[in-house]
Amino acid sequence: MLQLRLIVPADLREQVLARLDACVGVAHVVVLPGGAVRPAGDVVLCDVAREAADELLDGLKELGLPERGAISLGETGLVLSEAADAAEEAAPGEGVDALVWEEVSGVVHEESTLSGVFLALLTVATMLAACGAVLDSAILVVGAMAVGPEFGPLAGLCVALVQRRGRPAARSLLALAVGFTVAMALTVGFSLLMDGLGLFSDAKFAAARPNTSFIWQPDAMSFVVAFLAGVAGLLSLTSAKASALVGVAISVTTVPAAANAAVAVAYREYAQAWGSAVQLALNLSGIVLAGVLTLLVQHAAWRLVRRGPGRR
Known about the structure:
Layout: E1 2-8, H1 13-22, E2 26-37, E3 40-48, H2 50-62, H3 65-68, E4 70-75, H4 82-90, H5 101-111, H6 116-135, H7 138-147, H8 151-163, H9 166-196, H10 202-206, H11 220-238, H12 244-249, H13 254-266, H14 270-307
Antiparallel strand pairs: 1-3, 1-4, 2-3
């Protein structure tokens, strides 16, 4: 169940309550007349089955509630209630399959914004991957994959493309472009510093590295893995299965490819730099293509579920 909190202008109260009453997935409706001060209005609380939330939110937006009041949506946690059980049973489909666009958009907005933390995490992840590449350490490379925050703006780009929203798409592209540019530039300097300290060397980097050579030797499987990771990533995002994102993070080589390219530029190993760049492009394009297709299929499937009869 999801918890819905509304601030409702007095003249919209009856229309809002009618929408809640008409929604089969709603339970525990509470009205606090005049409970809101800014903006002024009534406070309306209710629980809604996840599978009914998207349709209900669309109806509330049609009433102009976001412009004149407010809509807040969050997880309820544990709910012990026969009324809640009945609401979930009446709502069509399964909650884990439900696509709540406003919830997804809210998550990716935060994760796809260019910020100091995003730049710091991406830079640290790229430098960590550079260490793994030079030392031929698969463990360090996997660690760098898990640290990298790049899936956020990739998911944001997918959502924006499906919703045909230019500004969120531009925000996600900006985060990716600036983030990788800054991280790779700093990693070039980091590599030269490590070389000066005797911790990196051209000989180590140019030597056979069987554990990490896949980073700069892309093939068809690179795109396949990225595509599958994109599907898994968007499914985990839309179904609130955050734990699955860790698996996605360590299955694609975006950050390691960027790191290997940076080290290669530092040592003027341009063949490796090119191979790493191709690997990076394959991974990014595979994730975005898979993410867009996944969202389109989910959207179409969920529309069919919403049109069908409720479960009994």
